[in-house]
């Protein structure tokens, strides 16, 4: 019975860890699951979450305008099409040679401007809600607004990663532990003895 009691003790500890982890981090697991689901579908929402990538007129880089010229067009387009109050700080430039198009992604409110690389024509102006969801998903939304250069994301992802690992391990043991205890209990029982019947004279 010593082994069985030890298994029961381990099971109680794992159940407590599982329950406590789930209760304390419920809201974070909720946001991670929802944002993860939406991010998985971002390219299949008809532009609702992520603006669809448009096609330009040429895939030959030698025919393209200079990046500086395209950048000027993108900045002018952002202010004229959305708001003069938006910052022109760039998050990144995404060159899609195979589509003949370049994206200028701005920091302020996650806006992007898609331009034809060869002509500079505006192909699309949209808000990248997927980038916001990614920032919420990995906790970098706080770094973005507090200017903490990634430290919050590092701490958050470390805590959530370890917690999810613990949640998985303890959840598996809560399923497997009782099975093992039952098997251990059966193996420790004495084999049943056969009843013998005396002969009647």
TrEMBL record:
The chain crosses the membrane at residues 21-41, 154-176. Residues 184-201 have a biased composition (Polar residues). InterPro entries: PepSY-ass_TM (IPR005625). The keyword Thylakoid does not apply. This is PepSY domain-containing protein. Keywords: Membrane, Transmembrane, Transmembrane helix. Residues 182-201 are annotated as: Disordered.
């Amino acid at each position: 019975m010593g082994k069985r009691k030890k298994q029961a003790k381990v099971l109680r500890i794992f159940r407590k860890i599982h329950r406590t982890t789930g209760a304390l981090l419920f809201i974070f697991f909720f946001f991670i699951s929802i944002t993860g689901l939406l991010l998985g579908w971002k390219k299949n929402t008809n532009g609702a979450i992520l603006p669809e990538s448009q096609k330009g007129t040429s895939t030959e880089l030698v025919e393209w305008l200079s990046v500086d010229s395209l950048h000027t067009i993108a900045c002018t387009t952002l202010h004229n099409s959305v708001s003069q109050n938006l910052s022109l700080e760039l998050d990144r430039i995404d060159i899609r040679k195979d589509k003949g198009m370049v994206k200028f992604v701005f920091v302020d409110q996650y806006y992007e401007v898609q331009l034809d690389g060869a002509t500079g024509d505006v192909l699309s102006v949209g808000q990248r809600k997927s980038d916001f969801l990614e920032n919420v998903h990995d906790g970098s939304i706080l770094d973005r607004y507090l200017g903490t250069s990634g430290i919050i994301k590092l701490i958050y992802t470390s805590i959530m990663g370890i917690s999810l690992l613990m949640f998985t391990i303890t959840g598996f043991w809560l399923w497997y532990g009782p099975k093992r205890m039952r098997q251990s209990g059966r193996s420790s029982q004495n084999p049943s003895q056969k009843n013998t019947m005396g002969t009647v004279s």
